[in-house]
Amino acid sequence: MSENNPYDRLERLFHEPKRLAIISLLIASMKGMTFADLKKGCDMTDGNLSRHLKTLSEKKIIEIKKAFVGARPQTTVEITSVGRKRFIEYLEALEQVLEKAEKNIQQAERKDEHAAKASMVINRGQLAK
Question: Which residues of the chain have pLDDT under 70?
């Protein structure tokens, strides 16, 4: 694994779409979010959200807090400082990957453009004969 290769720094933990949605919501919330708000924000079922939260919690990316608000139980989820750091590193790597892809697309388009122009010149030459 190379530190200079952004593809190697894309963590599968964050790359899964639903976990990406969870962390994207949590990183913007300084006080965390309730389970219900995360469920709604990520458009997930209780079971699916619970499974992803368990995975993130086991990796120390998030912290799950359970408490009572009045007589009702409430689960709050917060991103940890380690989770915040790792997610920002993931986003930086993803940004580099996207920049590389954009460069590759632009180079391919320039090549296609040159090939099309060359083809037109050749075709004009054949038409003149």
Answer: 1-3, 112, 114-129
